[in-house]
Amino acid sequence: MAPRRDAGRDRGRGLRPDAPAHDGDLWDWSGRCELRPGPPPQKSCDVAITLARQGQAASPVAQVLITRTNKKEPMRLVMQLQPNVLVAPGVKLVYDDKLPALALPFSRCFPNACFASGPLADDAAKKLRARAEPGHVEFKDGNQRDVAVLVSFNGFAAGFDAWQKEQ
Predict the structure, then answer these.
(1) Which residue from 48, 45, 52, 63 is spatially nearest to 155, judged by alpha carbons?
(2) How far is CA 81 from CA 20, 33, 123, 139, in A?
(3) What pTM did the predictor assign?
(4) Helix 156-166 / helix 122-130 crossing angle, nearest 10 deg
(5) pLDDT tens digits, one per residue of 112-165
(6) Which among 26, 18, 17, 28 has a CA at the least distance from the CA of 158?
(7) Topology of domain 30-166, per CATH?
């Protein structure tokens, strides 16, 4: 899974305070829009972050993405994970230990990645936007071991707001 490097316009700049040195946009929330051809052409936008385990910046393990095809459609939370995950329990975005995690079932797996997705309620998006403390993504690997990868929310509010304006 390659880090996103195509989203140059609206980027959050905060890094995890304990983040190792790295090259590129790992741990930065970034937004992008694409114009999809068709009658009529449609603009599709998202905001995302690429995650790696501490000390392994060259090997991303997950990407968290908030997207929607247009303003009339509900937002969707999408997570892309490395292959070799246990599919049955799904994946969780834990953004506040005092609130229920955003749990998603895996919808499909390919040889290079597995995808989980589901609707993201406006209320949940507002809670994510208000976060200052890091959260984590939880899943089980193919050997049934629990895995937790830190996710920073630094820069999320700016990226989310810019994404909303672009749509």
Answers:
(1) 48
(2) 21, 22, 25, 9
(3) 0.78
(4) 140
(5) 999 999 999 999 999 999 998 999 999 999 999 999 999 989 889 888 888 888
(6) 28
(7) Immunoglobulin-like (2.60.40)
